[in-house]
Specification:
Length: about 425
């Protein structure tokens, strides 16, 4: 995946998401106005992967033959209802279907099976298809319920806007046949490239997903973020965003592919930012998804759980120091306190490295644009700074408790050294009474 990482770093954000979809062997949907180069993404992917390419524009009057091939006259003579699929969608490896939501029911049924199972029913045979990635595009989102199943098949769903004012100069240079960046060379289609650069073939895409699933772990911290995000989107967000089980599983696997492309052995919490184009249903939903991911990361539920553990341990220490400071229970409490101190030291060091290094893990990924990284850093820095302060304070308290247990201090010492925690302990006793 080093090759894919190198190439992704040289292309724009839309192409990065297209590479992610293709490596996951999934579909991508682009909602955009006219003349925003939607089909160019598919052509570039086909060129990178050196795969058989198919492209078609649908209308309300399109027939299945336009996508799946004409009926075989010879087959009809032999009482066989089969299609000649060579050169059509069932034999394509990369495909682009424009105005895909204008597909009628005759096209829709075959398309759903082809996209989800990668199978095509030709006559009385169900045949596997070599499709790597299909990019669908439309100027409008689906309105009828019969198209919801098709819309759900597209793992990555993005809105493609016009070229921004800041980048319009590059577009003018491309139109004039000049490099977008004067310091780079052009390969003729607008892509800056260097001689001897990395090359991809279909195998780089075909086997990437399986390798990623086997090599990349999904830590519990990331699982917690995913579960909390889905719960929020479906139960608390207004209007609710439905996330199907199929989409949820595919999203987890996409994060594994993204981490594998970065050369990592585990998904990290910042990879979840990629879900802004996976869980949303409407153009504005991406901002809600991204905002909630950032809020979950910044809230640091692990810190809250650690504080609860400390409070329980503090109450236990108060009891053993007052009643039996030389008991085995006191020794167990001391050992648990030592473990807690080590945990907090690791957490404090990680937060310090993140803030002082300007979020190195987030900046190291090839899947986030510079603008996206800057926005995430700006949103996360205030809360993570506060989390670091709280962690350092909790570490100081845990270290103080550890020393009191080690020295078998009298119960009154804890009251003087940690008055705030002691009041919480006394309040807890009063509540039980």
């Amino acid at each position: 995946m080093q090759v894919i990482s190198q190439i992704t770093g040289a292309v724009d954000d839309s192409m990065a998401k297209t590479l992610a979809a293709s490596a996951e062997a999934a579909q991508q949907f682009e909602e955009a106005a006219d003349s925003t180069a939607k089909s160019e993404l598919a052509r570039r992917l086909s060129g990178l992967a050196h795969g058989a390419y198919f492209e078609r524009l649908l209308t309300r009057f399109s027939v299945p033959e336009e996508l799946f091939g004409p009926l075989s006259m010879q087959g009809l003579e032999n009482d066989q209802y089969v299609r000649k699929t060579d050169g059509y969608l069932p034999t394509a490896e990369v495909a682009f279907v424009d105005e895909i939501f204008k597909a009628n029911s005759a096209i829709l049924n075959a398309l759903l099976t082809l996209l989800n199972e990668r199978l095509f029913d030709n006559g009385n045979q169900r045949l596997p298809v070599p499709l790597l990635c299909l990019i669908g595009a439309s100027n409008e989102l689906p309105e009828s319920e019969e198209l919801d199943a098709l819309y759900d098949r597209f793992l990555i769903r993005r809105t493609v806007a016009q070229v921004t004012n800041a980048q319009i100069g590059k577009l003018a240079r491309l139109a004039a046949g000049r490099p977008a960046d004067p310091s780079s060379s052009s390969n003729g289609n607008g892509n800056g490239s260097s001689e001897g650069g990395p090359a991809l073939d279909m195998d780089d895409f075909r086997h990437t997903a399986d390798r990623a699933y086997a090599a990349v772990d999904v830590p519990d911290s990331v699982v917690d973020i995913l579960a909390e995000l889905r719960c929020y989107l479906q139960d608390k967000c207004e209007p609710p965003m439905y996330v199907s089980d199929r989409r949820f599983m595919k999203a987890v696997q996409m994060l594994q592919v993204a981490a594998h492309a970065d050369g990592r052995e585990a998904v990290n919490e910042y990879d979840c930012l990629l879900l802004e184009h996976v869980f949303g249903n409407r153009p504005d939903d991406c901002h809600k998804v991204r905002g909630q991911v950032l809020e979950i990361i910044a809230s640091d539920p692990g810190l809250q759980q650690t504080e609860l553990v400390f409070l329980g341990l503090f109450g236990r220490a108060c009891r053993v120091l007052e009643q039996s400071p030389d008991s085995a229970e006191a020794a167990d409490a001391l050992a648990e306190c030592g473990t807690l101190v080590e945990l907090l030291q690791g957490r404090q060091a990680a937060l310090a490295a993140t803030l002082e290094g300007a979020f190195p893990e987030l900046r190291a990924t090839v899947w986030q644009s510079e603008a996206s990284v800057q926005a995430a850093v700006q949103a996360l820095t205030p809360q993570l700074t506060e989390n670091k302060r709280k962690t350092e304070e909790l570490l100081r308290e845990a270290f103080t408790l550890q020393q009191c247990l080690a020295q078998r201090s009298a119960g009154g010492v804890l009251e003087k050294l940690l008055p705030k925690r002691y009041k919480q302990y006394q309040k807890g006793i009063s509540s039980k009474v």
